[in-house]
Amino acid sequence: MKFKAMDKKTIPGVFHNNTFIGLVLIAVMFLFGLTVNHNFLSPKSLENIFTNASLLAFASLGQTLVIISGGVDMSIASCISFGAVASALIMKGSNANIPQALLVLVITGLLVGVVNALGIIYANIAPLVMTLAVSNVLNVIQLIICNGSPTGSLAPAVGFLGKYKLVSVLSMITFLLIIAAIFVYFGLKHNNYAKQLFAVGNNRNAALLAGINVNKVIVITYIISAILGCLTGMLLLGYVNFPYINMGASYGMLTVAAVVIGGASFAGGKGNFLGTIIGSLVLVNLSNILVAIQLNDAVKNVINGLVLLMILVFYTREKAIRQ
Amino acid sequence: MLAAKSISKQYGQTKALDQAELSMKPGEIHALLGSNGSGKSTIAKVLGGLVGKNEGEITIDGKEIQLRSAKDSLAQGIALAYQDYSLVDQLTVEENLFLNSSGTLKMGFIDYKKRFDQTFQILKQFHISAQPDTYVGSLNESDKSLLEVAKALVYKPRYLILDEVTACLHRDQVLVLFDILRKEKKEGLSILFISHRFDEVYELCETVTIFRNGKTVITTDLTKVTNDDIVYYMTGQKETIKKQHNEKQAAEKKEPLLSIQHLGVGTQVNDVSLNLYPGEILGVCGLQGQGQSEFLRAVYGSRKISRGNIIYKGKRLTKFSPERSLKSGMAFISGDRNSEGIFADRSIFENINISRSALRFIFHGIRLNKSMSEANQLIKKLDVVIGEIGDPASSLSGGNQQKLIFARDLLLNPSVVLLDDPAKGVDVKARSEIQGILRGLSDKGMACIYYSSDYKELTAVSDRIVVFYEGDIIAEFNDISEEIESDLAAAMLGATRTEAE
């Protein structure tokens, strides 16, 4: 009996452990990258990979929570775009304006999250559709506030966060992400909200009967996601240096991919931020390798899609559970 | 004549049918009676081609036939109307009626105009208040039941099997349906009528077959048997039905902990009043769908109450939600673990601790060490067999999963626990352990309302039993012993009501 139980835990455990396989995958990618480009693992190149992956991971943090709850948030990209454009507009290159910018971003995030959640809960609209609709509205608002061409510039403090290098491969952004990851790790383990979030995602009926205020949990989750999206926009502005329209557009599907590669289930109830970080690294690595191979864009996209498909098929396989 | 001879059907370990015999003659309405799990629905499904038999043969007019699918059965002229509908909600009434038969063809194409007219006629005949292009999803339960019968008749069968189709019908609808069935009978249709309502069986049918534990006990003319005989054949125990009242005992008890007055829930619960006293286990008995589940959920606050009052700990409840109920010491345990109890992917610890988490401030921290040791104590106390406390709940057996849900509620020290068939699909050992846990807690003053579909389970655990029938309490038993089991079985079928009328 005891032997059997150990068997089940240790042997397939490693191969079904998404974190482990993710790390192996990243190592393989590094090696492959090295064969394509000798400078692939130079400090400068690594720093670049880590920083880009960190930005993606920041954008995907909210997505992780939303997917755990059993939904999906397609409005994150528009929050990033809005966050970048709006904060440049408000900061006007001065540190003194940062509090106002943060206030506007948080309030916008709050509104976006509440609208998303209310549409999903009370109008019973599918999360994908509801958040896409809100995303379109927010994109237009982004255009309206800057009359179609972004003005203003980032405050020096934000530029410092976005570009400062601590040590050779460790940028400020990566450092911030590590702090956030530690915070989230303990938060997910020790916080009532996290336990309720997982429960809601895993079995909504049971959550309701167990006394959880399901609607409250969902509203909070979408609010967190939208606020984090807006703040990521500010960070992205710090990294890129100047705002442009639809800056965050490419992050939309990438956040979903990062979370799913990270081992979360679209059915909800499963997922963790460490997995999402690994997922972000995998995605950024993949795109860097494809750039290094110097193929034309169409072939690049096809390979990108195929590799992602392979990763998802082999990597998110479930260990059979007893029913 | 359609005859099923020595049919046996095994589902895993349980024998649903054991050498069962059944025959249907043309121009006859034949009743099939039996208590829960006696194999009525199984034989219906075997004849409908949905379930393959293990042994035995089915013949039509002496020739053996093979029924491998519903299509085979329809080809042989056997149509089945199901208790839980074979209708597609997203299609219209017309499309549903002609789902499997195109109706009249005109030059190889469906004659839509004629089909529409036919549908219109059928709806009129059945008094269904819907148009042919109404979506079935928007119909109410009783119209769906009628439509289910109409659909079976569209196939123009020679043998029609009706599996508890009257369960959701109002009296006037039943009369309409019976008129139609009698007319079809005169034209030579053979009907098998499966029902739990004795009065309807007497009204409609001429002959009856009674099943008990998958075996045919008797086939006879209905004029030759009395109500008591039928109960005897169904339960195997000869007892007359007597409604017991023991007001004295109730008066001796203290103030009720929970007092429910004239509670109504939609159409499922009409008017239920009962008192629950501290330290009491109140059994609720009844066939499926008599309103017990809705009643328990309404008290717990997960279903809306239409009428009536609930007085709990001396105060009238005005706002209802599971959250509030749990906060005030009222817990609920569903037997439907997979969809309403367990968080299969989450750890055993989380499953136990979740209700406590739910009742605290949402961003409150969890003191893992303390909570873990409390959870471990409960696991020991309830004797839950687990690997590690961090393993997912799906690693446990059904009985142990159910104990986890008990542990979840016990962590909150509830004063009332509402149980909706908690031992469903749980093996005998775990079942008696669960009952032991409840007994132990009720000795300490906790009160339970315990619904089970199995009356044997109730007589083993309850202090008092009420019987639900069609949304009302029709009988109450105060002296619980094994002797009342046959009375319970009879009351579950509404027998006392039949006598009173």
TrEMBL record, chain A:
Membrane-spanning segments: 20-37, 49-68, 103-125, 166-188, 217-242, 248-266, 273-293, 299-316
UniProt-annotated location(s): Cell membrane
Chief localisation class: membrane
Keyword RNA-binding part of the UniProt annotation: no
Cell inner membrane listed as a keyword: yes
UniProtKB keywords: Cell inner membrane, Cell membrane, Membrane, Transmembrane, Transmembrane helix, Transport
UniProt cross-references to InterPro entries, sorted A to Z: ABC_transp_permease
Domain of life (superkingdom): Bacteria
Membrane topology label: Multi-pass membrane protein
Protein name: Autoinducer 2 import system permease protein LsrD
Species of the source: Caproiciproducens galactitolivorans
From TrEMBL, chain B:
InterPro entries cross-referenced by the UniProt entry: AAA+_ATPase, ABC_carbohydrate_import_ATPase, ABC_transporter-like_ATP-bd, ABC_transporter-like_CS, P-loop_NTPase
Positions in coiled-coil regions: none
Keywords: ATP-binding, Nucleotide-binding, Repeat, Transport
Superkingdom of this protein's organism: Bacteria
Pfam family, one: ABC_tran
GO terms assigned for molecular function: ATP binding
Domain annotation ABC transporter: ranges: 2-238, 252-495
Name assigned to this protein: Sugar ABC transporter ATP-binding protein
Annotated source species: Caproiciproducens galactitolivorans
